[in-house]
Design goal:
globular; Rossmann fold; 4-stranded antiparallel β-sheet; 26% strand; 6-stranded mixed β-sheet; alpha/beta; 243 residues
Length: 243
């Protein structure tokens, strides 16, 4: 199976001297194309830093990150921006929508920034795929939290990225909205062959994946391949008790 995302001995941290905090301490992990992986761990374990390094949003202090065989750590800022734009989609907990734009305009924005003319049919199709065909002209303030997150997903998929990285995308949503968003992420894998990496604290959300990586103190400490919410919750409780 082709590797879509690979991290090898990745190190990252914040601060200097005695105030230096290690976020990732030699993390190695591979994510196969067309798979759904959840990344979990106690607070401060390095989950979001791992995702940000994989997305090229943060540069690690050591090790390598590759997307479809391209080493991100060797790219200049222009080349890195182009690769992120063309091959990586990132979904955040706080949606990152532009408040003055409609849902359709938010979905089209990345294409416009890339110098492409968005096809109205493609924008409409992306919104329809997330159940928001009737909300195209609504601004974020006129949408619920779950609807805003679905706009963010439509904005990601319209660019057809190979890799979708989601950082706590259901963290601010109720259970019904969360389930809808997770179904959409699962559909990106099953229906379109995307590679999805989900950072989450929720065992139910992690249960949508076929693999769970567990981090503690900036290291991968376990991997679950037969996932269910109960097993994940029990393993997480053991990790948190040990920290």
């Amino acid at each position: 199976m082709t590797t879509s995302v690979a991290l090898h001995e990745v190190r990252a941290g914040y601060g200097t001297g005695q105030r230096r905090v290690t976020a990732l301490d030699g993390v190695s992990a591979e994510f196969a194309a067309g798979t759904f992986t959840a990344v979990m761990g106690p607070s401060g374990s390095g989950k979001s830093t791992l995702l940000h390094c994989a997305a090229g949003l943060e540069r690690p202090s050591g090790g390598t990150v590759t997307i479809e065989g391209t080493d991100l750590t060797g790219l200049n800022e222009t080349a890195l921006t182009r690769l992120r734009r063309d091959r990586i989609g990132v979904i955040f907990q706080d949606y990152n929508l532009v408040s003055s734009l409609t849902a359709a305009q938010n979905v089209a924005l990345p294409l416009r920034l890339a110098g492409h003319k968005p096809e109205p049919e493609a924008i409409a199709e992306a919104l329809e795929s997330v159940g928001l065909a009737g909300r195209a002209r609504h601004r974020p303030s006129e949408l619920s939290g779950g609807e805003r997150q679905r706009v963010a997903i439509a904005r990601t998929v319209v660019a057809r990225p190979a890799v979708v990285l989601a950082d706590e995308p259901t963290g601010a949503l109720d259970s019904n909205a969360s389930r809808h968003v997770l179904d959409l992420l699962r559909g990106l894998v099953d229906g379109h062959g995307h590679t999805v990496v989900l950072v989450t604290h929720d065992p139910v959300a992690a249960g949508y994946a076929e693999r769970v990586l567990l981090l503690a103190d900036g290291r991968v400490v376990d991997e679950l391949s037969e996932v269910d919410a109960g097993r994940i919750a029990a393993r997480m409780a053991a990790l948190e008790a040990a920290c």
